[in-house]
Write a structure and sequence with these properties.
Largest sheet: none
Radius of gyration: 18 Å
Oligomer: single chain
Helix content: over 70%
Order of helices and strands: HHHHHH
Strand content: under 5%
Low-confidence stretches: none
Number of strands: 0
Number of helices: 6
Mean pLDDT: 81
Structural class: mainly alpha
Length: about 110
């Protein structure tokens, strides 16, 4: 096991008092700890849980993230899924392929 998988790191950010209090109340109601909540949320985000992916897409629309960038990311995700299904490649191999394709695309822009 890699030393990175067991090393502990803190993730800190500022929030408004009311939001923090409401979160603590809601998590208490759901019998969850803040650490558990955020670790699971981050894991779901990194594992591309479809509920989280949909939420992030809505968030990007609200924050007016460039539609060109959003569309490019959607195409890359669809292509990754298609390649994975077609060739049975793992995620690292797919990322390498898309890095190459992205570099090639940049050459033609």
């Amino acid at each position: 096991m890699s030393k990175y998988s067991t090393a502990k790191k803190q993730i800190c950010f500022d929030s408004i008092t009311k939001l923090h209090a409401d979160l603590k109340i809601r998590l208490h109601y759901d019998d969850l700890k803040i650490k558990e909540f955020f670790n699971e949320l981050i894991e779901a985000y990194l594992n591309k849980n479809q509920h989280i992916v949909n939420f992030i897409e809505e968030l990007k629309e609200q924050k007016q993230v460039s539609s060109t960038r959003r569309n490019k990311n959607k195409r890359a995700s669809k292509n990754a899924a298609r390649i994975s299904d077609q060739f049975g490649l793992n995620e690292a191999e797919i990322e390498d392929i898309f890095d190459i394709l992205e570099k090639e695309e940049e050459l033609y822009e």
